[in-house]
Amino acid sequence: MGHRVSATHVGTISQRLETVGSATVATTLQALATPSRLRILAELVEGPCAAGALAERAGLETSACSHQLRILRNLSLVEAERDGRSMIYRLADQHVADLIEQAIGHSEHQRS
Description:
Keywords: DNA-binding, Transcription, Transcription regulation. With 112 residues, the protein is of the alpha+beta class. The protein has six helices and three strands. It has a domain of 77 residues: Arc Repressor Mutant, subunit A, CATH 1.10.10.10. A hairpin with a 2-residue loop joins strand 2 and strand 3. The longest helix has 18 residues.
């Protein structure tokens, strides 16, 4: 996967949010708020996958999966590479996997 940010961040969370832009962060979080996108991202945490297999594993129609993948690509959450006639998708970087893990962990904590 892509880059990994060092554990040392400059500024408080509020300062960093101001620098990045709260709308940008909100857009990323909104992408996780759609169950179909969340299922796609969760499948991609396991590793790269061809679009057709990804649709099947995520329980989506191929056209619906393609639409969601286009949105995820536009948000820079996934990347794609052509392999012959297939498109292979992968998470853009480890941050995306970390977001999924944190969201699941939070949900598990809320249920207990």
